[in-house]
């Protein structure tokens, strides 16, 4: 597969209280946004925190884009990405991921 690829990950996070969950959300957002400009081939990164408060919602979503599949594959083992994963430890209790090619539209 060649061309740009979108990588979306959603997490449910630990936390007994609303304050603990809020702190966990902020930590995930801060750490992943810190990757901006630090990984070759990562062209866009955005982190959103859920505001719906429905019981089936994920807490945080990572929306990122890479130049191609090779860049996404390299990201998985990049030292900066691994540093973020290590810093998050067992904060995550659920993880969902979708990767798909970005189709160029000629509007």
Describe the structure.
It is a single chain. The chain is 32% helix and 32% strand. The protein is of the alpha+beta class and 107 residues long. It has a single domain, classed as Alpha-Beta Plaits (2-Layer Sandwich). It has a 4-stranded antiparallel beta sheet. Helix 1 runs antiparallel to helix 3. The longest helix has 16 residues, at 18-33. The protein starts with a strand and ends in a 6-residue tail after the last strand. This is Stress responsive alpha/beta barrel protein. Residues 5-100 form the Stress-response A/B barrel domain. It holds the Pfam family Dabb. It comes from Bradyrhizobium sacchari.
SSE topology sketch:
Layout: E1 5-13, H1 18-33, E2 42-49, E3 60-66, H2 69-76, H3 79-88, E4 92-101
Antiparallel strand pairs: 1-3, 1-4, 2-3
Helix pairs in contact: 1-3
Give the topology string: H per helix, E per strand: EHEEHHE
Q: Can you tell me the number of structural domains?
A: 1
Class in CATH?
A: Alpha Beta
Q: Mean pLDDT, as a whole number?
A: 94
Low-confidence stretches: none
Domain Stress-response A/B barrel: 5-100
InterPro entries: Dabb (IPR013097), Dimeric_a/b-barrel (IPR011008)
Protein name: Stress responsive alpha/beta barrel protein
Organism: Bradyrhizobium sacchari
